[in-house]
Amino acid sequence: HVQLVESGGGSVQAGGSLTLSCDVPGYTRSSFCLGWFRQAPGNEREGVAAIFTGINMTSYADSVKDRFTVSHDYIKNTLYLQMNGLKPEDTAMYYCAAHFGVRICFRSKDMFNYWGQGTQVTVS
User: Fold this and answer.
1) pLDDT of residue 37
2) What are 94-111's pLDDT values in tens digits?
3) Which 8-state DSSP code applies to residue 59?
């Protein structure tokens, strides 16, 4: 049973920064598609960023490009989302997601079969 555990959420003022972390089980012989999603009340779950670990390829939503950075540390088995220049519209529950042993990776809910429980980010 695969468990993804997010941490690092919190409250921050506009313009501030937060770094989210997600513990990802280590499957060192395969490529992973890892992603960060967010969902605000009444909204659809939105793909914020994704990383294809096999070739270290990243993808970002236009709304976060140049402000957020997704990365993966193989040694620590941890996925990160560095968020800078936070805006009130970034307020949402943030979820990490994973699909192991893949040859493609795209920033869509349908890509992922494992999800974390979420961590709240509030920007005021």
Assistant:
1) 98
2) 999 999 888 889 999 999
3) E
Q: What pLDDT is attached to residue 69?
A: 98
Question: How far apart are alpha carbons 84 and 69 in whole angstroms?
Answer: 9
The side-by-side arrangement of strands in the sheet containing 78-83 is 5-7, 18-23, 78-83, 68-73
Question: What is the residue whose two structure tokens read 């992603």?
Answer: 35
Distances (CA, A) of 100 to 59, 92, 112: 17, 26, 9
For residues 42 and 48, what is the distance between their CA atoms, to the nearest angstrom?
17
Distance from the first to the final alpha carbon of the chain: 37
How many angstroms separate the CA atoms of 30 and 43, rounded?
Answer: 33
| Residue-level pLDDT at 55 | 87
